[in-house]
Design goal:
Order of helices and strands: HHH
Number of strands: 0
Largest sheet: none
Bound molecules: zinc ion
Helix content: 40-55%
Length: 70
């Protein structure tokens, strides 16, 4: 049996994927410290998960870890 993808099926497929992608959802509160994330930051960083403080801490930690590994 041939597998036919109609345009309408395609649309629902893509909208479902977009909804199930957690990284694209900007958080109102930081997932780490629960601080409010300013709306400007949520607009600027799509799928933002952390407040500015935690984001900076994460980036410092990442650099530190990669330095230790190298
Ligand atoms: Zn935070």
């Amino acid at each position: 049996m041939a597998h036919i993808i109609r345009p309408s099926d395609n649309n629902s497929y893509f909208s479902c994927r977009a909804l199930s992608r957690p990284s694209a959802v900007s958080r109102v509160r930081c997932v780490r410290c629960n601080a409010r994330i300013p709306p400007a930051r949520r607009r600027a960083v799509q799928g933002v998960q952390y407040c500015v403080t935690c984001q900076e801490t994460n980036e410092r930690k990442d650099r530190h870890d990669s330095m230790r590994k190298a």
